[in-house]
Amino acid sequence: MKIRVGTFNLFQFVEPPYSWYTKKEKFNEEQWLEKKAWIKNQIIKMDCDIIGFQEVFSANALKDLLEELGFKYFKTADTAKTKKDNDKVFINTTVAIASKYPISQSKEVKAHIPSIRKLGYKGFFKFARIPVKVDITLPNDITTTFYICHLKSNRLNEFEYVFNKTHTLEQKKQTVKKALEDNYSEALKQRLCEASSLFFDIKKQKNKPSILMCDLNDKEFSITIEALTNNKYHDENRKETFILNDAAYQFKKKIYNPHPEQKKSSRVSTSYFAGKGNVLDYIFISNDFNKKNKKSIAQVTNYEVLDEHLQKNQDGSLLESDHAQVVCELTF
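^ that's the sequence the OP posted. Answer follows.
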């Protein structure tokens, strides 16, 4: 049996006459129909059984669109809020999940207070967008927990730390230490609190497979990924062992008759800023799907990034999306 799961940042999914953030930021009816048509077409291309969505303002409109495409089950964990003085202007966004298979239960992801204290977070902590956490029973009767997340985005002019595969966990921790202690990087601190809370929630899921699909708002090799996946990040006495794996590393695309000088292909960007591509959208899988695990119940047999629209326009279009869509196929 195969299942396909995907993540899709919709880029301001706001049904008219509603606006996002300011009164003038809204679609007219013609633009809205065009955006919905593009999203539908993209979902058909993704060919998924389960999809996580970010930037969902108009949840009912999304639910209706998805029902037309065969997704019978739909869940959000929050409702987008509007301004107190104008109920037609949204001030925050939500995440959602759609599935062709039954959603058996929905649960809250609780903040992990010890991690939040350790990071020196001041004030009352809450997720920037409340994650969706649901159990879905697949046709083979295996119940899997799905998390859909959209972590805190960087504030304007906030310095971003960029790491690569040569940086160790300790180097990453030392690099960001002063910025976190002196509150130079408040968005990063929030993201690390969110990622740590998700880590400990997933860790409690003993004997239940988990899949997390997200707009991480942080790059490949980031310390946010360490907080989300790596036991050693949370306990220096532990070895580097991981509770989640980036599905992209679990699949190697075959290149037929490669050019002798062809270098290893670089990872496809899912978002662009100031002309530079980044990987912000991920699918993480628990060790139940890890090809190195002898007891794995399934393996990644395909991994795709749908970025044709970004190749034409790196900034994306409000009538499409400013993110690529990511799809992972698992074969049981």
